């Protein structure tokens, strides 16, 4: 099932027309969004997601979102949900029809079986050159690097390219050979008892799930670092994951067609990291 609510809390039929054809979300992908994992009626990292929605809107020079209204709207969708334990809550904030103001709605959707399969079984990943330097965000802020916009055509094209090359996911790289992010995820590696992830100032989206994982890891005595990671370091790492709100902690099984060594140790580390992450929501 799907539950759809407008920002004022009105639940509407998700199969009925909602957006005008001249809405700038349709015409230009001009807007922002967030997707939040909800388990047993409890949204995960709701505050950080709302903060990131506001940050993305500011980068696009959109009116500041009413975060209290978004929280109420999300709660209405959650309370109306009659599906399984898991739900993906998507918040969409478009610039709307030119001159008429923004369009805003929240939608609760089932978590698909393919997403769950990737989460439980792991994924094959390829690296792709994103075509820009790691410092481009500072030099060209108008490119909106680090904003979660509705303009996801390039990200989806990357995933289709991965499928054509017998993979399910992508890790983007910068022209200087450093790691960026996945099309819909954040890269995390383990080296000993240290977790590392690339910095947001390299033009990537700050990861809410990555932040939650690091918070749990630090509480358990791990060291965490936000710093540049070179592509070759992915091979030297004891564990490699793509983490995201709905797919959660997803283990990378192969990279550019090659399997990692020491599979049993990596599988054990994955179980430890996953349990550590989940323990904070028990």
TrEMBL record:
Belongs to the class-IV pyridoxal-phosphate-dependent aminotransferase family. It is an enzyme of class 2 (transferase). GO terms for biological process: carboxylic acid biosynthetic process. GO terms for cellular component: cytosol. Gene3D superfamilies: 3.30.470.10, D-amino Acid Aminotransferase, subunit A, domain 2. The gene is dat. This is D-alanine aminotransferase. NCBIfam families: PRK07849.1-1, PRK07849.1-2. GO terms for molecular function: D-alanine-2-oxoglutarate aminotransferase activity. Its EC number is 2.6.1.21. InterPro entries: Aminotrans_IV, Aminotransferase-like, BCAT-like_C, BCAT-like_N, Class-IV_PLP-Dep_Aminotrnsfr. Keywords: Aminotransferase, Transferase. It comes from the Bacteria.
């Amino acid at each position: 099932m799907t539950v759809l609510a407008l920002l004022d809390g009105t639940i509407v039929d998700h199969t009925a027309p909602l957006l005008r054809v001249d809405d700038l979300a349709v015409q230009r992908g001009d807007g922002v969004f967030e997707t939040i994992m909800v388990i047993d009626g409890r949204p995960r990292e709701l505050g950080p997601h709302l903060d990131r929605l506001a940050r993305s809107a500011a980068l696009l020079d959109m009116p500041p979102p009413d975060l209290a209204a978004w929280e109420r709207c999300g709660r209405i969708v959650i309370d109306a949900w009659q599906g399984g334990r898991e739900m993906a809550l998507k918040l969409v904030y478009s610039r709307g029809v030119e001159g008429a103001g923004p369009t805003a709605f929240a939608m609760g959707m089932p978590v698909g079986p393919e997403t769950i399969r990737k989460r439980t079984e792991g994924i094959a990943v390829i690296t792709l050159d994103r075509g820009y330097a790691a410092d481009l965000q500072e030099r060209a802020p108008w490119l909106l690097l680090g904003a979660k916009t509705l303009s996801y055509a390039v990200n989806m094209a990357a995933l289709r390219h991965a499928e054509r090359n017998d993979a399910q996911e992508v890790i983007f790289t910068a022209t200087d050979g450093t790691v960026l992010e996945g099309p819909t995820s954040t890269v995390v590696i383990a080296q000993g008892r240290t977790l590392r992830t690339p910095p947001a100032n390299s033009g990537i989206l700050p990861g809410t799930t990555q932040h939650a994982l690091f918070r749990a890891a630090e509480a358990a005595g791990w060291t965490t670092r936000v710093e540049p990671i070179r592509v070759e370091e992915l091979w030297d790492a004891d564990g490699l994951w793509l983490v995201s709100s709905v797919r959660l902690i997803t283990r990378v099984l192969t990279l550019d067609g090659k399997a990692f060594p020491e599979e049993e140790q990596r599988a054990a580390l994955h179980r430890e990291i996953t349990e550590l992450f989940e323990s904070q929501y028990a």
